[in-house]
Model the fold of this input.
Amino acid sequence: MLKEEFFPLVDERGNVTGKASRTECHSGSFLLHPVVHLHVINSKGELYLQKRSENKDIQPGKWDTSVGGHVDYGEEVETALYREVSEELGITDFNPVFMISYKFRSDLESELVNSFYTIYDGVISPDPIEISEGRFWTVDEIKSFLRKNVFTPNFENEFEMLMSKKMLPL
Done:
């Protein structure tokens, strides 16, 4: 039997206020829990996106942020970032740049998103269980597919926000 994962519950500043299971957090309770996002950009100014596996419980088969994952209870945000990037893309040597922390609410959950980017031209080895494929996209390619049910709503909202604030070096 799989062990239940626990996430920290946080306020909008990221201060831990409690803990809850993954099931509780993803069941429409809207308990605010922290996640990490990393936008991997190559030296050509292209953004790596991952296509979520069909077996994911949220947004299966949609293109999404380079890396996205939950912070485990008792784990620091930056530790979670390095763990998730290693697990999802096999990248261990990178320099994250923090951009923004913001609250995102979907139909099922409420997340405090901690968003970073890195410039990276090395080898990327996507986890075949979590990711069905991955590739670099140009900004124009991404813009041409916005609002066409290709990307996760979270990615679209974050991409548009970061571009409007000129936070992504694209």
